Amino acid sequence: MIAAALTSVLAASASAAPSSPVQELTNDVTRSTEAASTLACSPGDGTWCGLMVNAGVNETFAKFLMYYGSPLLKIALILVAGLIVRNVAHSAIEALAERIASGEAQPGRSRWWRAGRGRETRASEASTASTDGTLAWERRSQRARTLGSVLRSLTTAVVMTVVALLVIGQLGIPLAPLLAGVSVVGVAVGFGAQTLVKDFLAGIFIIAEDQFGVGDSVNLSADAQGTVEAVSLRVTRLRGVDGTVWYVRNGDVLRVGNRSQGWSRAVLDIDVPYSADAARVAEVLDEVGEQFHADEDWRRHLLEEPQVWGIEALSMDKVVVRLAVRTAPLQQWSVSRELRARIKARFDAEGIGHSIDDPADPADDADDAPAPSLPPGNQGPPTGPSSHR
């Protein structure tokens, strides 16, 4: 009797055990097929199925439409609604990006501000920007369009994910086991892709904050320095002066030194002999700067006239005079080379020599003086064997 009771309990528990999702889906399909086959579908019975049969539709197909028509119609409506939402969101994002790129939309300022006094203020800001050489229009356009592309991709991913879940629900597939499995996979991928997520988030902030863009000369680390060739959400590509290409992951960028954002400055430290007249040197440098600024070929690269800042350093044999000029982005090196050439030619014409050519240099006098002789009895260490033991 005990064995019979145990057998009955095991059989009952086996029948009550939950089946797998695949088995449940197979059972649902079987029940749906049986239910569809038992639908009343006779010509003239007054049902929609009967009307379709009267119109010449196959009875099996008519039953299929009657049973599955509502879910299929819902799925179609879900797909159409998803496409509409995606297209509307894309259009709104693209319109906003274009407004920001063209300068029509300014965050924090209302339409009434732009319609009234804001126009004059914006005009003055635009003139100041053009004078300072900030290239605000190009950089803002690039940044706005890049962020617009990122937002469109995110919108597509979110809308399509929601549509897929709704369609799966209409097909009768249980979402709870599916979402549980996806959650586990998502957690595993999240732990393994922390660096990737960090790179993407850092890339979004780099583009949104306009830390640097294509064409900028930047310093990202002790080794990675050069001109930016490409900026993506994951990696930034630099080209060094020697031609080396650096690929820097955005998540590894801890600090950025941008040499060309807005404007640049050429700073020249010029060595002159200590005996030279400092006032005359400053006057000559001022004249060279005025002539350089008046040159039409170079004036478009300058944002102001070169200025002599004065004596920067002193030493026993030279004086360092600093000359500085604000230039357009990435033009400081060519301006510096041209200024050095002009200053050298003018110094030669004025007879202002370099510090190493100064005849009053005490080092030169020391070289020409005869070497002192040692007094008798102090001629250095003996060369022969010592007589002392």
UniProtKB/TrEMBL annotation:
The keyword Hydrolase does not apply. It comes from Quadrisphaera granulorum. Residues 372-389 have a biased composition (Pro residues). GO terms for cellular component: plasma membrane. This is Small conductance mechanosensitive channel. Keywords: Cell membrane, Membrane, Signal, Transmembrane, Transmembrane helix. It is found in: Cell membrane. Belongs to the MscS (TC 1.A.23) family. Residues 1-16 form the signal peptide. Residues 195-255 form the Mechanosensitive ion channel MscS domain. GO terms for molecular function: mechanosensitive monoatomic ion channel activity. SUPFAM superfamilies: Mechanosensitive channel protein MscS (YggB), C-terminal domain, Mechanosensitive channel protein MscS (YggB), transmembrane region, Sm-like ribonucleoproteins. Residues 358-368 have a biased composition (Acidic residues). The chain crosses the membrane at residues 65-85, 149-169, 175-197. Residues 352-389 are annotated as: Disordered. It is a multi-pass membrane protein.
